[in-house]
């Protein structure tokens, strides 16, 4: 780091091990869109004492993920349909379990966040009059979505990184965060590890103290076996949970059908060209066109597959009457229950059989037929139709050495986004740890269900809000660095002890991989799209045991960084399971992107006549107005829960002179 971004302090010494120690005013963790945007905003506000820490500047979800048409969601300002921040806030809160004031902030701030990106050169397409024409996304009535194609967040990240470097913001790459530092009720820094210096006496550890900690370590990508999160994205929420940060809505994630060899959402065009679904038994090699058994005719099967392109996220409300989300249930059953591999094949049309009939374009429903006609689709096979509709969708897979014209795609129901995260206030500051600012997916603002593209907007709005409070209300240095060093020393001592334990004796080959696979399979099987009270209870107990088993790991010294990640990941996955079990116990049913299966003797609508034991527990509508908070109690070694009422969308009118006065005296931040 340059001399402008930190102050050296006396090293922290533990049993003759000297760990470098320094101070910077604001420490930003993570290098996704939200973290980088926060840093840019702070530097533009004149804050020089600033540093970004990341384990891989080219890793993370923002830079390595996308979809058929990855969406940025903002207030509509270039169509004839009138839009207001209040209408947008209503759309954001419609799914429930979201605070109205935060929804209004995300609506009002959407234009600021979007045009800040445009000002940096992010090339969002516009019409001849300069309007950024939008389109409708999931769960939204107006044309608020805009896109750069499949790589919207990737381009955003690249431009934000470029701006950080132009502004001279220090970026410490190849550093893992291994422990957060808390001093009383405030955040005070982080213990980090240089992965290129793990063989030194200090094990590559370094203590950075700070007045403000921006926490942007992304979503729980490494928690699941079936996931569309990029491989470099593990998630670091456990680091904040273990110091007692309150989390909100950990139960709420978004799931959908994705490819596995190359992780990508199979939305939009991939389904609208009607590929064939089939599964293969791993032991016998037998092939099953399994959809044929669950649809009454080929027309309803074709309609469900086509609509899955529009309705990509799994939604229990779209299961009945042969809806598109029945596909997710059937794919889940094939993979998780029957142990088969499922494929999407663009070389063949859906096969059908004598019972439901054979594929015939004449059977297309009105919506699908009109879409094909308007798009000029008349190919005889799915790959021909995909070339006509969206050749870039084929090229995307070619860029990753997958030829859709020569091989099928293995697919599964995968975790895609955590709508929950750390609980924060209207300035994106933790509700119970001052000066801790969760941004991006680490902040649980989204509620149970969200319109497509809101995550990118929320990250940019949250970055601006956090930067505003830090730059205007928390600009002065207030940290007692000596007390913070003592807290840092205790954290470093704990981590050094864990490192010693991990390397004591002979390393066990692949034990860390097997350990990770254990909680990943548990999350994909019991804490993803399909859940039940019984399996949640059993999985929670297994998670608690696996957390205790961490002390038995013995790894090669060069895998210590990975093993330290497992420490906070296994703890966090337990907290997610605790949250799910509590939600179901409180009467929470199927909602958003998760299906809760009824227990024996419990009433519920069958998912399908051929699956009589799979009965849908209906959504508890009362919980739409409630948010689950969970917090770890270090004394009892158990989580604590609070259920709070959602705050409504503000309706009071503001008087300019009053707003101006509150802004000038700083009371707007209180």
From TrEMBL:
Q: Which domain of life is it from?
A: Bacteria
Keyword DNA repair recorded:
no
In its keyword annotation, does this UniProt entry include Flavoprotein? Answer: yes
The cofactors it requires, by name, are:
FAD
Q: Which Pfam family, an example, fits this chain?
A: FAD_binding_2
| Record's keyword terms, sorted | Flavoprotein, Oxidoreductase
Which residue range or ranges hold the FAD-dependent oxidoreductase 2 FAD-binding domain? 26-456
List the InterPro entries hit by this protein, alphabetically. Answer: FAD-dep_OxRdtase_2_FAD-bd (IPR003953), FAD/NAD-bd_sf (IPR036188), SdhA/FrdA/AprA (IPR030664), Succ_DH/fumarate_Rdtase_cat_sf (IPR027477)
**GO molecular-function terms, A-Z:** electron transfer activity; flavin adenine dinucleotide binding; succinate dehydrogenase activity
Sorted alphabetically, the Gene Ontology cellular component annotations on this record are: plasma membrane
The UniProt entry's GO biological process terms, in alphabetical order, are:
anaerobic respiration
Q: What is this protein called?
A: FAD-dependent oxidoreductase 2 FAD-binding domain-containing protein
Which organism is this protein's natural source? Marispirochaeta aestuarii
């Amino acid at each position: 780091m340059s001399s402008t971004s930190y102050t050296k302090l006396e090293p922290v010494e533990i049993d003759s091990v000297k760990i470098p120690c320094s101070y910077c005013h604001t420490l930003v963790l993570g290098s996704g869109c939200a973290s980088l945007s926060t840093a840019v905003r702070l530097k533009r506000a004149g804050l020089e004492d600033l540093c970004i820490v990341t384990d891989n500047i080219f890793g993370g979800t923002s830079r390595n993920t996308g979809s058929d048409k990855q969406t940025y969601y903002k207030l509509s300002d270039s169509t004839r349909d009138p839009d207001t921040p209040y209408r947008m806030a209503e759309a954001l809160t419609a799914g429930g379990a979201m605070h109205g004031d935060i929804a209004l902030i995300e609506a009002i701030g959407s234009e600021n966040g979007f045009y800040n990106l445009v000002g940096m050169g992010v090339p969002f397409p516009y019409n001849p009059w300069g309007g950024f024409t939008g389109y409708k996304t999931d769960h939204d009535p107006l044309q608020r979505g805009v896109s750069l194609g499949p790589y919207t967040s990737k381009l955003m990240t690249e431009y934000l990184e470029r701006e950080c470097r132009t502004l001279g913001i220090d970026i410490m790459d190849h550093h893992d965060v291994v422990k957060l530092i808390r001093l009383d009720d405030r955040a005070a820094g982080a213990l980090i590890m240089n992965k290129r210096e793990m063989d030194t006496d200090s094990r590559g550890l370094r203590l950075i103290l700070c007045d403000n900690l921006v926490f942007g370590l992304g979503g729980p990508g490494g928690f699941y076996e079936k996931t569309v999160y990029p491989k470099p994205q593990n998630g670091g929420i456990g680091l904040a949970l273990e110091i007692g940060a309150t989390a909100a809505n950990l139960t709420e994630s978004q799931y959908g059908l994705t490819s596995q060899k190359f992780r990508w959402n199979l939305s939009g065009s991939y389904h609208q060209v009607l590929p064939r679904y089939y599964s293969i038994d791993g032991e016998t090699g037998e092939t099953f066109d399994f959809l044929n058994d669950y649809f009454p005719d080929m027309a309803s099967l074709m309609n469900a597959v086509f609509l899955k392109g529009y309705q990509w996220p799994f939604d229990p409300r779209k299961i009945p009457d042969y809806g598109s989300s029945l596909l997710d249930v059937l794919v889940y059953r094939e993979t998780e229950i029957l142990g088969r591999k499922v494929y999407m094949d663009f070389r063949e049309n859906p096969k059908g059989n004598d019972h439901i009939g054979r594929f015939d374009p004449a059977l297309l429903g009105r919506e699908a037929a009109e879409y094909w006609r308007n798009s000029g689709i008349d190919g005889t096979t799915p790959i021909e139709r995909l070339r006509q509709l969206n050749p870039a969708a084929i090229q995307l897979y070619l860029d990753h050495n997958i030829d859709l014209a020569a091989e099928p795609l293995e697919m599964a129901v995968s975790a895609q986004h955590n709508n929950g995260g750390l609980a924060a206030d209207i300035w994106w500051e933790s509700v119970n740890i001052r000066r801790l600012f969760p941004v991006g997916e680490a902040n649980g603002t989204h509620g149970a269900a969200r319109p497509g593209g809101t995550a990118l907007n929320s990250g940019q709005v949250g970055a601006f809000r956090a930067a505003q409070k830090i730059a205007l209300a928390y600009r002065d240095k207030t940290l007692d660095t000596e007390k913070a060093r003592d807290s840092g020393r205790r954290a470093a001592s704990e981590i050094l002890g864990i490192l010693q334990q991990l390397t004591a004796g002979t390393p066990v080959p692949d034990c860390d991989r097997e350990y990770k696979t254990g909680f990943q399979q548990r999350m994909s099987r019991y804490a993803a799209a399909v859940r039940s009270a019984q399996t949640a209870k059993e999985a929670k107990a297994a998670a608690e045991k696996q957390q205790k088993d961490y002390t038995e790991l013995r790894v090669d010294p060069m895998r210590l960084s990975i093993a330290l990640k497992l420490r906070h990941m296994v703890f966090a996955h337990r907290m997610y399971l605790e949250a799910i079990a509590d939600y179901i116990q409180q009467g929470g049913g199927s909602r958003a992107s998760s299906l809760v299966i009824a227990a024996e003797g419990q009433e519920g609508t069958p998912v399908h006549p051929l699956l009589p034991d799979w009965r849908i527990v209906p959504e508890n509508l009362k919980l739409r107005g409630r948010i689950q908070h969970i917090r770890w109690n270090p004394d009892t070694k158990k989580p604590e829960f609070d259920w709070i009422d959602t705050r409504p969308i503000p309706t009071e009118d503001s008087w300019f002179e009053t707003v101006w006065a509150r802004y000038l005296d700083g009371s707007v931040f209180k």
